[in-house]
Each structure stands twice: as C-alpha cells, then as structure tokens.
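Notebook entry, structure prediction.
Reason for the run: the old model in the group folder had no record of what sequence produced it. Starting over properly, with the input documented here first.
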Amino acid sequence: MDNSIPVWLLPLLSFAVGVIATLLISRMMRSEASDTPDKRINDLQKRFDSYQDEVVAHFSTTAELVNKLTENYQNVQEHLLQSAERLALDEATRQRLLNSLVDTRALEHARQAPVTAPEPAATPAPAPAEQAAASEPDTIPEPPRDYASKEEGEVGTLDASYGLKKD
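New structure, fully documented this time:
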C-alpha cells in the first residue's frame, strides 16, 4: 500500500477544488450583480426612448395621412362641383345639384384651415337626459313627483321649522 494515495488526501483535494470553484463563481456573480441595476436602468431608458420615437412617428404619419385625406376630399368636391356646373342642363337643376353637393361655407373653411388633431373638449358632453330632451322638443317637462303632500296652512318639508313641535 505504499504506492497508493492516502485515503484522506482525495477528500481533502476535492474539498479544496470545491472551495476554489465556489469563490470564483461568487466573485463573477458579484461583479455581474453590481452592474445589473445600471444595465437595467440603461436598458429601460433605451426602450422608453424608442417607444417615444415610435409614438411621435405614429402621430406625424397619422397627421400627414389625414391632411392627404382632406386634400383628396376637397379635390373630389371640386370635381363634383365643376361637373355639376358643366353637365347640368338648366339653371334650376344646376342650382339644385350645387346645393345638394356641398355647403360652400364648409368647403371654404376646409380650404383655409388644414386638419389638425382635435383638442379635448373643454365643456362636458350633455347628459343622456339632456340629449333626449333636445331631440324631443314637442314634449313639455313635468315637475318631479317626489314631493310630499301637505294640507292648507301646513309648512312644507323644506321649511326650517318642519318636524318641530310647538309647545
């Protein structure tokens, strides 16, 4: 047994290799962990900047397309007006066609002002009850029927002395 390695040497070498490997791995992990928050912040900033660029590009493209659409609509309206003037047989027909094709004030306004994104409304939208009342002008509104009836000479429920006993 002189040629053999002592029994205690093999576990000792294995333990030493394990400790060295653990130290190396822990040092590598620490250096990566210390860079991680900075890398994450930089990565998030890059993603946010990229997103902002995409949003700006989207809205500028949308504005260009809407302006082209408006221009094409105006061209179609002008073509229809010119055709109506040229093809109408008499003055009454021509006038009727022109009136049905376009409101000239709206067309002139559209030529002067390019289309932009709509601004948010400063006034709130009317409530559904107000819309219903506006759409039915012939109906007369009735007073609410949630009032309490009272006898002649009694105080009403909204009076300050209502419910107080007089002694």
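Summary: The helical segments are 9-87, 91-101, 104-112, 128-135.
The old model has been moved to the deprecated folder.
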